[in-house]
Amino acid sequence: MARDLNTDPRLVCVGANLESKVILEGLIDIKANIVSLVTVPVEKSNNISDYVDLHPICSEADINIIDTIDINDHITIQQIRLLKPDYIFTLGWSQLFGEQILAIPEKYVVGSHPSLLPEGRGRAPIPWTILQGLKQSGVTLFRMDNKIDTGPVLVQNMFDIPDAAYAMDVYFLATQNLRSAFCELYVKLKSGQAVEVLQDTTKASYRAKRVPSDGHIDFNHSATDIEKLVRAVSKPFPGAYVYHKGNNIYIWKASLRNIPPYIGTIGQILTKNKDSLLVQAKDKPIWLSHFTDDAGPVDINYFRIGSRFNYVVDDELYKLWQEIEALKRGK
Predict the structure, then answer these.
(1) What CATH number does residue 155 fall under?
(2) Would 328 be classed as within a structural domain?
(3) Are 275 and 229 in contact (CB under 8 A)?
């Protein structure tokens, strides 16, 4: 009943991942009037790499839960509409919002993006930030419209990116800045001081979707590019990988420090220490470590010095030709 008497702006929050948890906790701390959280049920969360179960937090804070796997589902839309929100805060949700969702709140839907819009519109912002070698990035809250990352800016926070940062390092920086930004925006909305700034479309840039296969390591690339790839797609993302002994081997750490004077063929394991392999890239060797396969961690002793990662295409085609010829002769 007390919640119904609250005259502060009514929020419906949408999220199901780690950044959603951190932001939600921040909004709870400043006593935001959260009338419901839309989230993904645990049993439907397998495809969300950074999923966090937010049900316990909402239970403790007495926040209503709407479970869904489709924000545009008509039942979900109906449930949100009945709550009569002033704003919908998108804390962490990858699905695009349809026109019906955008039309629900009395005011508008707030979108979030971990880049300094209009730069970096689109997909996979954290991996692309590392792959592009950026030294600074930021987060943007904006008034969501029916396009992607194009609405007027409400809040922007900038942060520096440490040298040799991994995806999770940038993820945490973005998450903490998003928490601050959402709390700042809510205070401004309460006091009527929120300001909208149109994005300068002449400065817009766009990032394409990335898929797990983009994490394949091609040792014909430079050691610097390989090191950036390993960092960019490390946890909470699917990881960089190679082929070895018929298996996918995932590599979670890479280093260009203290490279000894070895040279070998592309993709060859040159030497190893207690936890790392020195592997030849196009221009110079690189240290790789923290290996897993689909079953779990892979011991360093699984790898033999002198062996090579990935396949030599011509050799594999020749083997295939031999097998086909053998089958023909067996007829």
Answers:
(1) 3.40.50.170
(2) no
(3) no
- The tokens for 321 are 């030709």
Q: What is the DSSP letter of 10?
A: P
Which two three-digit tokens encode residue 190?
């309460």
Q: CA–CA separation, 270 vs 307, rounded Å?
A: 8
* Cα 322 from Cα 316, distance rounded (Å): 10
Q: Letter for the amino acid at 163?
A: D
Question: Residue 316: in which H helix or E strand, if any?
Answer: helix 313-329
**Boundaries of domain holding 136:** 2-207
Residue at a domain's end among 156, 188, 207 = 207
* Residue 203, H or E segment: none
Cα–Cα distance measured from residue 115 to residue 127, given in angstroms and rounded to the nearest whole number: 11
- For residue 326, being part of any structural domain is answered with no
For the chain (331 residues), the mean pLDDT of every run of 10, in chain order, is 71 96 98 97 89 96 97 97 98 93 97 96 96 97 95 98 97 97 97 96 95 96 98 96 96 97 97 97 98 96 96 85 87 62
Tokens of 119: 């730069």
Q: Are residues 203 and 219 in the same domain?
A: no
Q: Which amino acid is at 29?
A: D
- Tell me 171's DSSP state: H
